[in-house]
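Ticket #4471: structure output looks truncated?

Reporter: J.K.
Steps to reproduce: submitted the chain below (299 residues) through the standard prediction queue, then opened the result file.
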Amino acid sequence: MNTTRPSAVRPRLMGPERLAFRLLLPSVAVLLLVIAYPVLRAVYGSFFDDRPMGPAAFIGFDNYARALWGAGGADFWAAFRVTFLFTVVTVVLEVLIGLGMAAIMHRSFRGRGLLRASVLVPWAIPTAVAAVLWRWAFDPRGIVNHLFGADVTWTGAEWPSKFAIVFADTWKTAPFVALLILAGLQIIPKEVYEAARIDGAGVLHRFRHITLPLVKPALVVAVLFRMLDALRLYDLPAILTNGANDTTTLSILVVRASLGDLKPGYGGALSTLTFLLIFVTAFLFVRLLGAGALGRDRT
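Returned output as attached by the reporter:
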């Protein structure tokens, strides 16, 4: 018979939790200062007009109405479509390429450590620097046209511009996805594959019924991180095309309204809508796919 009282067990259970809470407090405070305050400030400012002289007047949801179905509706929904196009295409390509890269790096061969280090070089390059490098490469007199013997103005038309942005983003961030998937592959016991080989399972069968189910948690995390990053894409299109040729993303639209047009109220409404879009997308993704993949019971 267990005579341990609940009151005696609770302090021992709460000890590590209290320690973890105290250790996280500085980070939470910094996040609140760096992230929460600007977000709340933008939300607050979005309810005021952008008059150039005198104090701003409270206008309620007029800035949101302007962005969604008013004078700025066409620009907002065009940026919305472009942002989701870039997100879907780049995430799919990066997952497929990253999965292949992770499978190769997971094998045992001579020089594997050097390969893993070299693969991460594109991801380690700052995005702004990578964008400038690719702008030079996609120049009409750049190396891309030289290699393919083409004469394409890659950043001067709609679809070549979109291709250039997708290519540059995939080149830079596919190694990051590969790194996360590789971490998931390394925790799969080798005995599982050996037992499958003994049972006569082929390569495709092992990949479908062993690798994919067991690497799914890491894959979900990789897709979530990349999806959130792609939804706020700014650097690459801003430097490569400056949003021209139907490559304006929501982040470019926010910066253009807030800084270029000097309309902080309208820019605050756009940034709030972008934040809500990212939040809802992440919530639905985790709710529909992430809970099962991460081993959580949906109630």
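Triage note (M.O.): checked the attachment and the full token line is present. Residues 1-35 form one domain.
Status: closed, working as intended.
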